[in-house]
Specification:
single chain; two-stranded antiparallel ribbon; mainly alpha; 2 strands
């Protein structure tokens, strides 16, 4: 079973799986992308990636840690990152980093949270709650409960 926030993307030399939705990756990402105010949370990093105020660390570390979080060895993830992020124009990798963080934050279309978010994005409207239905018994139609009788 895939971990929430896992996403497959075309990157580097092929299709790779990424996941920063695990605590180990999130904590390291926050530290690696810290700014003058201290650690940068994943949504702060995502905001920078969306607005275009990203740092090289925001892009590089999101991709590297995403590869590791999805199961790639740290040395292999570093090698791919060096070859395809460090040695290429950084802006090429921004959409990949943004997608990795979005998957962690709101899910991907194949998981329930991501499906709901995708539907809302398509229609521009919030869909029905994904909360489980109530287990309280429904009152039968025509019930007198709550009505005063003479």
């Amino acid at each position: 079973m895939a971990v929430h926030g896992t996403i497959e993307l075309d990157f580097a030399d092929g299709r790779h799986t990424f996941c920063v939705a695990k605590f180990a990756q999130i904590f390291e990402l926050q530290d690696k992308c810290a700014d003058k105010d201290g650690p940068s949370g994943p949504l702060k990093i995502l905001k920078r990636l969306v607005e275009g105020s990203w740092t090289v660390q925001d892009v590089r570390e999101t991709i590297r840690l995403g590869l590791i979080g999805a199961g790639m060895s740290a040395p292999d993830a570093l090698k791919l990152t060096r070859q395809y992020v460090d040695e290429r124009p950084w802006a090429e990798s921004v959409p990949v980093a943004r997608s990795i963080l979005l998957a962690a934050a709101v899910g991907v279309p194949d998981d329930p949270v991501g499906k709901l978010m995708a539907e809302e994005a398509e229609t521009g409207q919030a869909t029905a709650s994904s909360a489980p239905p109530s287990t309280a018994p429904q009152r039968p139609l025509g019930s007198r409960r709550g009505k005063r009788t003479k």
